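Section 3.1: Structural characterization of target chains.
Under the original work plan, the team committed to producing a structural model for every single-chain target entering the pipeline before any wet-lab resources were allocated. The record below documents one such target. The sequence was received from the expression subgroup and is listed exactly as submitted; it comprises 302 residues.
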Amino acid sequence: MPFAQIRGSVVSMTKHGHSHEGHFDAERVAAALEVEGQLASGLAAEAIALCADRFADQGRTVERVVDIGSGPGVDTARLAERFPSATVVAADGSTAMLARAEARAKRLGLADRVETCAVDLNGDLQIVGSCDLAWSAMAIHHAEDEVATLSRIRELVRPQGLVCLLERADPMAVRLADDLGRPGIWERLEEARSEWSERARPTLPGAPNAERYPSMLASAGLDVVASRTLTNTVTAPEDPATRKFLGAQLRATARNVADLADAADVEALVALVDASRDARWDGVTVTSSRKLFIAQPAAGQS
């Protein structure tokens, strides 16, 4: 199963606040989401900077931020770093995710300003308290009723506050510098992966809804003040956790494009992942993309 689909099925359970952690390897999923969050952290940093600029233009000090569907807290920590006067709440339905968020905050010296809170994405969110910024990345599409959840989020936001959503754009793309003895292999595989992505888009969590978020936000009493597609390419670190995550990504690619790509290209990709030879894993680049929506309560809604 492609990681995107694994993430969707698992996060939909954990973020719904149900106690299903015994039915899957919560630690494995949390570790993978942590790597994914770190690889895509440039996108979060760009979105956070846009929010910070809007607050600065208003002359406002951000005192409280809620990261709804925080996962392992990668964005939570970045929010705390960017808003040094704020308390930041990591809110999620998984104890494994919240434990990692706490550990990350402690490791980065942010524990005094980071709180955790167990929430049900489909339930009452008032437990997290009011906030200047409600942040949610790759989470709202797991709600049973997105408009209802967005409405509850809007109720948390203080006057002149913001809601910031990051949702799926294109699937993560992984590419090695080594051509595996087949010049142009990565371009061909990317073309096949793009074709697969278009075919599979209706089944990928969040993908069909990304274009609908402006209307859903409006229905929830929120006015969109900024929207764009963010894309970022990074060179992946060489630690074991990242290598394991990227191996899973490439295995998923091989499965997904098996009927679309040149058979020899797929065979070379499978051989690479199975062999995991260090020399061939130098200079791995990862491209991530997200749809960004920044909104504020409509007049009379705050």
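Residues 222 and 298 are 5 Å apart (CA to CA).
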